[in-house]
Amino acid sequence: MTYLEVIKKIRSMANKKNVEGMARFGINSKNTLGVPMGRLRELAKKLKNEHTLALKLWASGIHEAKILASIIDDPEKVTEKQMDLWVKDFDSWDVCDQTCMNLFGNTKYAYKKVYAWAKRKEEFVRRASFAMIAVLAWHDEKAENEVFVKMLPLIKKYATDERNFVRKAVNWALRHIGKRNMALNKEALKTAKEMEKQASKTERWIAKDAIRELTSPKIQARVKLKTQQAYERGLK
Question: pLDDT tens across 101-146, in order?
Fold first, then answer.
């Protein structure tokens, strides 16, 4: 399919009621058509690994076209320059998170950008840093524990950022590190308990929420099982 054909297809699936519903969940309604994720993923199956098309779709500025671009792009062809340009265009938490999950987390620059973007002041750029941590903790099975232990001070440092979309991403990152295996569960809980004693209300909220989930019987059982399975596969 050509760029114009894809844009026409996306527009044909527009739903104004969905846009209103998305706005209630904090999703930016500007340039948003209200196309469900399921339908975007169905379309993406026909367009996988279309780097040039992905660049054009992102440049359109259409909310759903940007998410589709993140699904169909080829991570092997993504450059640092592209990542830095796209991250500046993030204007909604779902575009940020989907791009990190679908694309950026699979690039060779992912870990580098965690540290670079955390320092940035823009709300969604900083969110991308912590969304990336969560994605990497979730998907990168080969990464050593120490990689994520080194990220815990970053989480502590920016846990004082009161902006809603940042604090939720910091919380997400801490919880996902803690759900990776039992060793990291202990490290994440140690960090959370240190944060719980701090003066910052935001830091305490992140800590309490993480502690509640990471100590729950359900999560403890799941983490123990994951740890055992990783051991059996020869992973740490």
Answer: 999 999 999 999 999 999 999 999 999 999 999 999 999 989 999 9
Q: How confident is the model over 41-96, as pLDDT tens digits?
A: 999 999 988 999 999 999 999 999 999 999 999 999 999 999 999 999 999 999 99
Residues 6+ apart with CB under 8 A from 201: 162
| Domains of the chain by residue range | 1-73, 90-236
Burial 207-219 (b: 16+ CB within 10 A, else e): bebbbebbeeeeb
- Better pLDDT: 91 or 236: 91
Report the percentage of the chain scoring pLDDT > 70: 99
pTM value? 0.94
CATH topology of domain 90-236: 1.25.40
